Amino acid sequence: MVRIGQNILEMKKYIFILNIILGFFLVSYFFFRSNESFNNIDNQNGLLTLKQKEIIFNYLKDFPNKTQMSIAFIREDSCWFYGAIKQNDTVSEIDNKFSNFEIGSITKLFTATLLADFILDSTITLTGKINNDLDFRINNDIQISYLELANHTSGLPRRPSDFYLTAMKSPLNPYKAYNKEKLEKYLKEKLVLNQPGELTYEYSNLGFGILGYTLCQIAQCDYETLLKKKIFDKYGLTNTTSIKENISGELVQGLGPFGNPIWNENWGSLEACAGLISSVHDLTKFAQAQFDSNHLELALTRESTLVVDSTLEVGLAWHIMKAKSENDWHRHNGGTFGYRSSLVIDIENKTGIIVLSNVSVGNPNKFSIDDLSFELMKTINAH
Questions:
Q1: Predicted confidence band at 1 (pLDDT cuts at 50, 70, 90)?
Q2: What is the domain extent for residue 318?
Q3: What is the spatial distance between Cα 115 and Cα 213, in angstroms, rounded to a whole number?
């Protein structure tokens, strides 16, 4: 009986040890699995090449769960769409071509198009001063031209100097409180140039906010109304807006730097720099319109106005990349607290790539969205 008891005791001890070992391997398996993403992109619609599928997977797999990418491939009059989402550490297909994302600074392309329209109808001149179209005097009588605002050579800082005080009062939506009255007060009393008298490239959200504000003052209407009249209706953009309440269809949840759900931004009086919401389906119409030489206002925005260096020139908002391929690429990206976007077109080849995502501008891998668009652009130009 003693021997049987000892055997039972030893058996329980071995079972206990085996359970510990088994538990260790199970924990290890699920730990490592959570750090490995699985590819479930099966290319059901047959439009992606194997290389393109691998490129998308390799970029998306490193982002947090619930990350989406909505991608448009453009070749002349044809386009096709592809959506991917990461869920439970698995990357899968999703139909999100009509889904809405904040597009951030791609908004600047629309504001620049408004500017070009005003120039072509002789309302203003590109080198004319905005001072002539405001009903108040800018601080210290600083003179600023439309061109300087549109190609980032005004010397204005990225944000107004008093923005941070306003942001402290509303940290979850810092631009919302920076209303028209605050912008006008800044222009009248506080505006100071970082590089007065120098035509040096310095990217400025404030500059495009002021540009949009001034155009609206001239037209005597709000930004949304001006966009609808001059761009949305003309190019058939039915799902692009600066007003969140106006969107139709799904608004994809924006994600914070670590994949946490995050609020949508309201850009207040600076909406013309980054305030639009759109889908790849709508943006494709805007991109394809760039290939039509009859759209003179679009052609004007793409003309080079500044040589930054041997690899980069600037049009009106557009950044012209000189070293990515045989032809110039016109591109712009965008980023907000919950979203990241990239749009690239090749006018000569009439090709383009648009990538919208809910990757945060605070994510350390945010520039991967730009890199993804460049890699996909190379694949579409190779065919």
A1: very low
A2: 101-381
A3: 11
